[in-house]
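Dear support,

Our group has been running a series of protein-ligand predictions, and this particular one with flavin-adenine dinucleotide is the one our PI (initials K.S.) wants archived with full inputs and outputs. We had some confusion internally about which version of the output was final, so please treat the block below as the authoritative record. The input we submitted was:
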Amino acid sequence: MAKILAIAEHRNGKLTDASLELCKAAKEIASAMGAEPAAAVMGKDDSIAKEVAKYIPTVFSVADAALEVYTSDGYTQAIKAVVDAQDVKGVIVAHSYDGVDYAAKVAMAIDAGIVSNCNKARVEGGAVIFTRNTYNGKIQEEKKVNTDKFVVTFEKGAYDMEAAGGAGAVSSVSASISNVRTKSKGIIETMAGAVDISQAKVIVSGGRGCKDADKYKDVIVSLAQKLGGEYAGSRPVIDSGWTDAARQVGQSGKTVAPDLYIAAGISGAIQHVAGMKGSKCIVAINKDPEAPIFNIATYGIVGDLFEVIPAMKEKL
Ligand SMILES: Cc1cc2nc3c(=O)[nH]c(=O)nc-3n(C[C@H](O)[C@H](O)[C@H](O)COP(=O)(O)OP(=O)(O)OC[C@H]3O[C@@H](n4cnc5c(N)ncnc54)[C@H](O)[C@@H]3O)c2cc1C
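Confirmed final output from the archive:
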C-alpha cells in the first residue's frame, strides 16, 4: 500500500512536538487517500524510532553514526533510502529550521514536487491540495504538485499533536550515508537560558495598549503566572524593553500555537498575527471594537484591559 511518510525530528534525544503534529497529518492525509501512514526516523540508533512507534503504526528507522547530528546531506540520503525501499507517495516535513533546510533537497532527490509552509491539506480526486498563507497571511492559496510524489512542509500548529497510545512496528532501512558536505560543530543556543514560548500551552501577550513596563508586568505577567503560562508581547513591547526579545510573537519573533493565546492591547497587525494565528483558542481584549485582532479571535472582549484583566484574575 502507498505510504504517507512523516519525518520525525529530535533534538538532544527528545522528539519535538512538531513530529507529533506530523504523525497526525500523515494519518489524516493517508486516511483520505486510502494510503498507510508511516514515519521515518534518522539517528545513531533506533531509540527515537521506538518512541515514535507509540504515535504511528509503521516506523522506518535509518540508523547510522553519520545521522547522530542533523545534516541536510545525511537526512536527504536517509529519506531517499526509505522512499526507494517503500511505496512512498508523500513526505511530510516540519517547517522548522532543519525542515526548511532539507525539504527541497529531498524533493529533488526523489523527483517530487514540493509545497512549503502549509497549514492545511485536503484530498480531492486522489490529489492532495495544500493550503498556505501568502502575503503574510493576507490571502491563502491552494497548491498541488504535478508529480507522482509530493513533499510538504507544515507550519507549527497546523495539526494537533497525535496522542501516544499505540505500539507500532519499527523496521530498519539501511542507507549508505556518504559525502556529507557539512559538519555540525555544535548547536549554540542564541538565547541560552531564555524561555522558549513556542512550547507553551498558555500565552498571555501584551501590546502597546499596556502603556508602560510596570503596567505590562502588572497585568500581563501576573495573569500569565496565575494561569501557569508564559507571557509574551508584540514588537513595540520588545522594542520598548518591557520584556526580552525571546518573548516577541510574530513575523520577526516566534511562531506560537498554544491551546490558549490571550492578546491584550494588541491591534492585530498582520506581522503579529503571522506568529499566533495557529493558536487553538484566541481571546482578544481591546478597547477598539474595530481592531483587526477581533477578525481572528475565538472570543473578543471589547473593553479596557486594565479593567478586564483584574476582573479575570479575581475569578481565577
Ligand atoms: C518587517 C516587519 C516585521 C514585524 N514583525 C513584527 C512581529 O514579529 N511582531 C509584532 O507584534 N509586530 C511586528 N511588526 C510590527 C507590526 O506591524 C505592528 O506595528 C505591531 O504588531 C503593533 O503592535 P501592537 O498591536 O502592540 O500596537 P498597536 O498597533 O499600537 O496597537 C495597540 C492596541 O492596543 C489597544 N489599546 C490601547 N489601550 C488599550 C486599553 N487600555 N485596553 C485595551 N486595548 C487598548 C488599541 O486599541 C490598539 O488596538 C513588524 C513590522 C514590520 C514592518
